[in-house]
């Protein structure tokens, strides 16, 4: 059900959308505890089916070489279960109002962010695929602070429109990635809050910074906006809290921004610090990270001495470069 160029046919897109809406309605009508248990079981089933398990295990070996194979296997299974639980939570977002979001979240660093907003230069909230990044934006909006989230379009435009509808109903304005160079500066000049998930492989357009001890190509946009426009930057995560119920701690820690006059060096420094802060959060609950993406797909170019010895650069198109 795809055309000659590999695009999904209209019939397939409608089928995908219909299935997604049916699942949304089913999960949304369940009691929250039952929906959470369903998501956990669904994640466990996907783990047993082996979908992307090789990618997950490769990433865990790179990030946690000190763990045994048994420990990494246990962590991988838990990460699938977490993904299923958060998928269920996301489907239920369409039924929540701001009061329900506030009820399910506690904040840390809120006063510091309000103080930063008093500077009048806007605020950048930089997060990663950890915990529940959609809840992070919803928690800010639900507390009366307008937020714009930089997003990538989904392949299915009908599903994408539904996601956008849910975000807007929760008070989250969306900025497409391709529009970010124009719209982010406007938002910051209006003293707005801009949120971005910035931890996926950025290919050759990124900067290489350490992530779990290995250089990772990382998007430079958050640091570029912060350095150029003087906006305060916060490392932000929404970590699911242990125990019964579905609750999250949404935390934000201000990250110092160095401005030496060397733009590229300042971008490198800030990007590295943001990656380090995210890594620290992940180590607190590693099963809550999205290990399914090829985070270290792009490799740094070899040093001149290595090239002279004939060591080839490892890089190429990434068919798994998901949003």
TrEMBL record:
Principal location: membrane
InterPro entries: LipA_acyltrans (IPR004960)
MF term (GO), any: Kdo2-lipid IVA acyltransferase activity
First-level EC class: transferase
Subcellular location: Cell inner membrane
Record-linked Pfam families: Lip_A_acyltrans (PF03279)
Region ranges (Disordered): 299-323
UniProt KW keywords: Acyltransferase, Cell inner membrane, Cell membrane, Membrane, Transferase
Domain of life of the organism encoding this protein: Bacteria
EC number of the protein: 2.3.1.241
GO biological process: glycolipid biosynthetic process
GO cellular component: plasma membrane
Name of the protein in question: KDO2-lipid IV(A) lauroyltransferase
